[in-house]
Design brief:
Elements lengths: L5 H31 L5 H13 L2 H14 L12 H25 L3 H9 L4 H29 L3 H7 L9 H10 L3 H35 L1
Helix pairs in contact: 1-4, 1-6, 1-8, 2-4, 3-7, 4-6, 4-7, 5-6, 6-9, 8-9
């Protein structure tokens, strides 16, 4: 690891530390709403939240750039080309993965178990905390692992709305882009290996969680 790689790495980890709680809250909340509630336009919302998965990152970044830059409310906040833009880019690119996983997790929980807890006089929050969440935990963690890896590796949306400013908005993926532009392929390889390692770690965690879930089902 070279000295020039450390600031982008630390910045990427800082972005991830802010993105993960937002992925849990937003992804978990929207996933729960799609799995457990009915409301007008639910089908449209379900398609809309998955749109970032199929749109090119440059398209998502362009419309975010346009929306924030033209908004009389958001523009004065100075979000563009700042740390907040990096967090926004990471969350937008990774949120569909977390939403989809949360939706599947909460939909898989048997309602009868929750109803049994309610008959014992448990409140809704207690039922969610002691019954729903533990049963959905593995699938939620799978979604969090995959979405975190996606947030860490975001490039296209970050480049569009945060730029590639060394020491300010240059994350590890943007650092790789900069190294290739300057023909520093050794530096690009070193940074790429870090992201590949993070990706393998996420996939390994997902595998462990999936194996644990399969073993639980086999015991039933």
């Amino acid at each position: 690891m070279t000295a020039t790689m450390i600031p982008p790495l630390l910045l990427s980890l800082r972005v991830l530390s802010f993105a993960v709680p937002l992925l849990i809250l937003l992804g978990g909340g929207v996933g729960w709403a799609l799995a457990r509630t009915e409301f007008p336009g639910k089908g449209f919302v379900s398609l809309l939240v998955q749109l970032p998965l199929i749109l090119p990152p440059s398209v998502m970044g362009f419309y975010l750039l346009f929306a924030i830059g033209k908004s009389p409310i958001l523009k004065p906040l100075g979000i563009l080309f700042s740390f907040r833009a990096l967090v926004l880019a990471a969350v937008v690119s990774a949120l569909p993965i977390m939403i989809q996983s949360a939706r599947a997790a909460f939909a898989s929980v048997e309602r009868e178990l929750e109803d049994a807890a309610r008959t014992l006089g448990k409140g809704e929050w207690t039922v969610f905390r002691t019954v729903t969440l533990p049963l959905a935990r593995r699938t939620l963690l799978v979604g969090l692992a995959l979405s975190s890896a996606r947030a860490l590796g975001d490039f296209g949306v970050s480049l569009m709305i945060a730029g590639n400013i060394p020491g300010r908005t240059q994350t590890l993926p943007l650092y790789i882009y900069n190294r290739v532009e300057t023909l520093d392929f050794a530096g690009a390889h070193a940074a790429s290996l870090l992201l590949i390692s993070a990706g393998f770690a996420s996939l390994y965690l997902v595998r462990l969680l999936e194996e644990g879930r399969n073993e639980r089902y086999a015991e039933r």
